[in-house]
Amino acid sequence: xxxxxxxxxxxxxxxxxxxxxxxxxxxxxxxxxxxxxxxxxxxxxxxxxxxxxxxxxxxxxxxxxxxxxxxxxxxxxxxxxxxxxxxxxxxxxxxxxxxxxxxxxxxxxxxxxxxxxxxxxxxxxxxxxxxxxxxxxxxxxxxxxxxxxxxxxxxx
Length: 156
What we know:
Elements: H1 2-21, H2 26-49, H3 58-85, E1 96-101, H4 109-124, E2 128-132, E3 137-142, H5 151-154
Antiparallel strand pairs: 1-3, 2-3
Helix pairs in contact: 1-2, 3-4
């Protein structure tokens, strides 16, 4: 059973490798197989050596994930309208850097997971990208001046 699990994990990584490479040749098949076996072996060695497992908070993650779709749709509509207006050669689009308030939290694994997910989800919206999250807030680049109103609520 352990061997079957190992092979399934390695096969999944090999397929992922081949998808990203985008070509199928003997050399790429060998590279995919070798790197997948090595990555699977390394992951299993590290998993045995480390006692802690990644545990994301469940309820906030669901709320964060639900807000991403609505934010992305709203930002996409706003950006499409703005880009359509750029067909006029006299108009220009310029982005801005803004600081979004963000509660960093402690060093506990649950807080680290919340912080990582919040920063990743904040960058998924078409209008925003997190540049730096190390300071008191999130330094974000926005193409349009006003962000989604929901950003203030879930980034606390």
